[in-house]
Specification:
The complex is a heterotrimer. Chain A is of the alpha+beta class. Chain A has seven helices and four strands. Chain B folds into three domains: 17-225, Rossmann fold, CATH 3.40.50; 235-316, Ubiquitin-like (UB roll) (Roll), CATH 3.10.20; 321-401, de novo design (two linked rop proteins). In chain B, helix 3 packs across helix 10 (213-225), helix 5 (89-96) packs across helix 6 (98-112) and helix 13 (321-335) packs antiparallel against helix 14. The chains are: A alpha+beta, B alpha/beta, C alpha+beta. Bound molecules: flavin mononucleotide, iron/sulfur cluster (3 copies) and FE2/S2 (inorganic) cluster.
Chain lengths: 155, 407, 279
């Protein structure tokens, strides 16, 4: 398959760009893979096994451990809404409601694949609550209007 | 406000090495090189600097333990995982003075004779990751990493972005994470100073901890100890949020009162407070009767509280604290690594019971259940997460039993 | 003996050998200590916390299965904290798992007075994986003891077909990329089955007999033999149902100096020729 071959090639590139092929490079490699494909697909893990000697199943264990890595596809941009104590005091439930309304079910990419959203633990932006992240960058304070705009643009 | 030490460059200096040096930067590192590793460890020990990551371990002693290990390969790890709910002071510190953090780290590497520094920055801190990395590159380009390592070798700097897991702030989980594994904590002993990252002697330090070091080198232990209390030297950063007019990071010398901090931040916005959560999710609820608590390690301990990471979340009168506790319960259930039974199943059960109480259901039986569960988790869990996942809940139960809870 | 030293257990002075764990000392001294994840031939996972003891000078309780004994240690195995913690561990597991095929867990729970009703709440809900001819996985029974992962990995098999996936209450054992056994790297040695303490992974034949209500431990006869497939000389235990003279499963003794209880696919599952020509 062409897509599969291109994923494999990209993963090899990512690994080659690291200072070594030891297992200690794994987390950084996975961040790059996630960034490139919005998830870590199995073929990427196969390539990691071949190049770095990390068993496919170990990579699966690692990917499912960390919130920022997924084995299921996310949108090209991910909106993460903090639901922890301070943000909750400042109305994060309204953000979540807006997301459910305009972006659909949590974790599911929009029809064009451009965006998905998820709730998350404290982002360390409590001074700007309610906080969110868009594409890995802080978006705080976030408003329901912003979430809806994101939805209107992407779905 | 009192003198700003750690935050003195906040909003003033663009993060360029030239400006940093012009404003007195790298003087601490220069002093360290003159003194030699052993003397640096001694000086830091004399200063009374304690770790700011939560456990308050004496920094100089930790460094010296690594320095004097017979195994020659040593590492330094910057713990910038900052994921404790309500905590954002490391973020603010990196934003305001990333070179100060890097300089402290270079001194740590020199003092412990380490060959490599790992910057472990939480994956959600992309801007801070860029700042630290740019600083590291500028420092390397300027030749400031030269000769710091063992036998005059150069020290190397490596970056790891966290994957989004609070548990990886726990030092042994952090090692597993860097090594490319699931972030599951290991037992201590062996302690990191003996067998840490890649099984080599390792110093793990919090961002705020190392940022204190350059000034200790340039101004001395006595100067440092002149701020703070007898057993808590220096100044401390507090992240304050919730029902306050000016949520922000504040720097105060140890020994200030919680009420001073609350006033600075405009707590309650004119309304009285119900309580604050002091020390983050693993901290305790503190009620108005204890707002005069002295903010020092010993002062907090005397009231059965802890400073933890220095997080303060304020709740205005009328806030349902069981609903707050439910949030905390969910946080721990979500963040438990899942390795050990007391924490994996215990945090889930705790969350379920708190969910009932938050909804107004549940009575004496549920409260008794929370207490016995708390004892199991605190005693039998492998690591600090499970051991402290019920601390806040217990403080709430105690307050309720003593009638300190409104409503 | 050189390298021997004294530790104190419940106020009693006992001898420990260099390199021993606290659990090894307790067992020799016949101090009853519950264990679940611990297995003699695997790296201690220190995950279940059933074996915790109170160690003077240590804030939290310590896992006796992992912690090495050191001269002068003072250990309590019956203090209130220990009793409470152990009971808590079993009560938490009973509130989560299906324990139907874990008689050892249930017996230990009863012995220490664990109340199965103490906690209620979400139980493990996992599908039954019946995806290969040799064994079945029912993770509602899994206590996440890490034994199967270790046996499949560096401790014995070096195949790396299994991992722990997810986090917290969602954590569980997964094969390969969260897929079927045949899709994973599995070579069907059955060593995970051999070490599983709860029956969460079970030989398919036993599983089917149980489902049909035909499995009866008292009808099982164990015959010792040596594996005939190669020259290594693995000792086999054939578990034969006396009623049908049918082999239900094959194991190897954990104490056997060659196998330590681990076999390969041929030794463990290559017995269907014995049934050739039978209906
Ligand atoms: C669950 C858990 C999370 C932790 N998170 C952090 C963290 O985000 N940052 C940090 O500096 N220390 C954290 N710690 C404390 C570290 O394990 C360690 O004590 C600290 O980094 C040592 O540095 P210090 O001596 O400079 O404080 C955490 C501990 C636990 C148990
Ligand atoms: S206490 Fe919780 S976080 Fe720590 S090892 Fe046990 S399960 Fe993991
Ligand atoms: S049968 Fe053998 S190879 Fe397959 S999962 Fe079990 S231990 Fe691993
Ligand atoms: S399947 Fe069995 S051996 Fe594997 S972790 Fe679960 S209970 Fe332990
Ligand atoms: S037997 Fe020791 S922790 Fe499980």
């Amino acid at each position: 398959m062409e897509l599969e071959a291109s994923i494999r090639a990209r993963v090899r590139e990512i690994i080659a760009s690291r200072p070594g092929k030891d297992r200690a490079q794994l987390l950084e490699v996975l961040h790059e893979v996630q960034g490139a494909f919005q998830s870590v697909p199995r073929v990427a893990a196969e390539e990691i096994e071949r190049e770095m000697g990390v068993p496919v199943t170990d990579t699966y264990g690692v990917v499912t451990f960390y919130d920022l890595l997924t084995d299921k596809p996310t949108g090209r941009t991910v909106l993460r809404i903090c639901e922890d104590v301070t943000c909750h005091l400042h109305g994060s439930s309204e953000l979540v409601a807006a997301a459910e309304r305009s972006l659909g079910p949590e974790g599911e990419p929009s029809a064009d694949g451009s965006i998905s959203w998820t709730r998350c633990a404290c982002l360390g932006l409590c001074d700007q609550a309610p906080a969110a992240h868009l594409g890995g960058e802080p978006l705080a304070p976030c408003t329901p209007a912003f979430v809806e705009k994101a939805g209107a643009r992407h779905v | 406000m009192s003198e700003q030490v750690l935050l003195r460059r906040r909003g003033k200096v663009a993060p360029h090495l030239k400006d940093y040096i012009e404003s007195g930067g790298l003087e601490g590192l220069r002093r360290a090189r003159e003194m030699g590793p052993e003397a640096v460890c001694r000086l830091v020990t004399e200063s009374g600097l304690n770790g700011r990551g939560g456990a308050a371990f004496p920094t100089g002693r930790k460094w010296d333990a690594v320095r004097s290990q017979p195994e020659p390969t040593h590492y330094v790890v910057l713990n910038s995982d900052e994921s404790e709910p309500g905590t954002f002071k490391d973020r603010a510190l990196i934003d305001s003075d990333p070179f100060l953090v890097m300089e402290g780290l270079l001194i740590a590497a020199y003092a412990t004779q380490s060959e490599r520094i790992f910057l472990y920055v939480r994956g959600e801190y992309a801007p801070q990751t860029r700042l630290l990395w740019d600083c590291a590159e500028e420092l390397a380009a300027g030749g400031h990493l030269k000769g710091l390592g063992p036998n005059g070798s150069d020290v190397a700097v490596e970056l790891r972005r966290g994957g989004g897991a609070y548990i990886c702030g726990e030092e042994t989980a952090l090692f597993r994470s860097i090594e490319g594994y699931r972030g599951e904590p290991m037992s201590k002993p062996p302690f990191p100073t003996v067998q840490g990252l890649f099984r080599k002697p390792t110093v793990v330090n919090n961002v705020e901890t190392v940022a204190n070091v350059p000034d200790i080198l340039t101004r001395g232990a006595d100067w440092y100890k002149s701020r703070g209390t007898a057993r808590s030297s220096g100044t401390k950063l507090y992240s304050i949020s919730g029902h306050v007019a000016r949520p922000d990071v504040y720097e105060l010398p140890f020994g200030a009162k919680l009420s001073d901090l609350l006033e600075l931040a405009g707590a309650g916005n004119g309304k009285p407070l119900e309580a604050v959560l002091l020390g983050g999710a693993a901290g305790t609820f503190v009620f108005p009767r204890d707002f005069d608590v002295e903010l020092s390690y010993e002062g907090a301990a005397a009231r059965g509280a802890t400073l933890g990471s220095g997080a303060v979340i304020a709740f205005a009168e009328g806030t349902n604290l069981w609903q707050v506790a439910e949030r905390l319960g969910r946080f721990f259930a979500h963040e438990s690594c899942g390795q050990c039974v007391p924490c994996r199943v215990g945090t889930q059960r705790q969350y379920e019971i708190l969910h009932e109480l938050a909804g107004g259901a549940g009575g004496a039986r549920e409260r008794a259940l929370l207490r016995s569960l708390s004892q199991v988790m605190t005693d039998a869990s492998i690591c600090g997460l499970g051991q402290t996942a019920s601390t806040a809940v217990r403080s709430l139960l105690d307050a309720e039993a003593q009638g300190a809870l409104a409503g | 003996m050189a390298g021997d030293f004294k530790i104190s257990v419940d106020g009693r002075e006992v001898t420990a050998h260099e390199g021993e764990t606290i659990l090894q000392v307790l067992r020799r001294e016949e101090v009853e200590t519950p264990t679940l994840c611990y297995h003699d031939n695997l790296t201690p996972a220190k995950a279940c916390r059933a074996c915790v003891v109170e160690l003077k000078g240590s804030r939290a309780l310590v896992a006796s299965c992992e912690r090495k004994a050191e001269a002068g240690m003072e250990i309590q195995t019956e203090s209130e904290r220990v009793v409470n913690a152990r009971r808590g561990v079993f009560e938490l597991l009973l509130s989560q798992n299906d324990t139907e095929t874990a008689p050892n867990l249930v017996a230990q729970a009863q012995r220490i007075g664990a109340d199965p009703e103490h906690y209620s709440g979400l139980r493990y809900e996992r599908p039954l994986y019946d995806d290969n001819p040799l064994f079945v996985r029912d993770y509602e029974k899994c206590i996440l003891c890490y034994r199967c992962v270790e046996a499949c990995g560096v401790d014995a098999q070096n195949t790396f077909a299994l991992t722990v996936s997810g986090r917290g209450f969602e954590a569980g054992i997964a094969a390969g990329w969260g897929e079927t056994m045949p899709d994973s790297a599995c070579v069907f040695c059955g060593n995970c089955v051999a070490v599983c303490p709860t029956g969460a992974i079970m030989d398919r034949r036993e599983h089917q007999m149980r489902v049909q209500g035909r499995y009866d431990e008292s009808q099982m006869q164990v015959t010792q033999t040596t594996c005939s497939y190669c020259g290594v000389g693995c000792q086999l235990e054939l578990h034969v149902d006396q009623r049908t003279n049918e082999i239900v499963k094959v194991t190897s003794p954990e104490t056997h100096p060659v196998t330590f209880g681990f076999l390969c696919v041929k030794g463990r599952y290559g017995y269907s020729f014995t049934e050739a020509g039978r209906e």
